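Sanity check

After download, print the first record. It should look like this:
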Amino acid sequence: MDEKTRPYKIYRKPAIFTVLRQYAWADIIYQNNIELRSLWPNILFRKPYVIAIRTWVRSPKGKKRIVDYLKRVTLMFAEYVISISDAIRKDSYKDSIIIGNPYRSNLFKIIDDIERRDTVAYLGRFVTDKGIELLIKAYSRTHLTNIPLTLIGSGNDETKYLKLANEVGIRLRLTGNLYGENLVKELNTHKILVIPSLWEEPFGNVALEGMACGCLVLASDGGGLPDAVGKAGLTFKRGCIDDLVQKIAFIYQNKNVEMNIRKHIKEHLSNHLEDVVCNKYLNVLERAYSNRKNQNQPNKY
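Expected structure tokens:
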């Protein structure tokens, strides 16, 4: 959909008068994450507003800055606050509504004519906080060492991972960055997708994408990953190599585990379909507007 066919208009880097004009026009204000620089006009217009929190309201190093405290105060005056996971809710605003992220269901799906092998894959950026070194070391302690571990993605740490793999005696299969159908086809060839993040992910869409392509998802239990996985996958203790090794073995050694996981995948993914998530957001916005409208109506005796 291009700019001409959209049923709405997008203002990119709008001038202040454009922002004020849109505030005057709007019935309700919605923000994806808190942006104080574009919310301040509501001091003048006092429109009901809804904010969705999609990441931690603190610095990348975990510290709360003055601006983060201001953002948290701003949340207190919102009609509703939406958090993408229970971890975000607990950390940022305990009275928020949890609505998990959607995934692209028209793209990520099982392709029947692709052979699925007993292999393990990782998908994401090649950076330290994603836990790839932990995965490589854990993989070297499994019965799979004669099968390459597949890393899908890229980054500056690629050479370091190749060196580590050589030291611990395993082979890596590097696909580089894959997108669209190529990524879907690659995911369809693997049994397990491991998400070994050391960083506490706010949610973890890659979990939904992996299970939609038929992978058994094994993710660290930090942040919002448990919400992204639900009963449709397994989690291991974040940063614990022993638990990761045990969970990989657990999946391969117990056939009932795979059956139990797969019976939950369809239901779990159904809660993250685009139209389902959109309707949940629309419901919150309609409630916010209705609440303010009712407040403004005069009392009748």
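If your output differs, re-run the checksum step. Summary of this record's structure: The mean pLDDT is 94.
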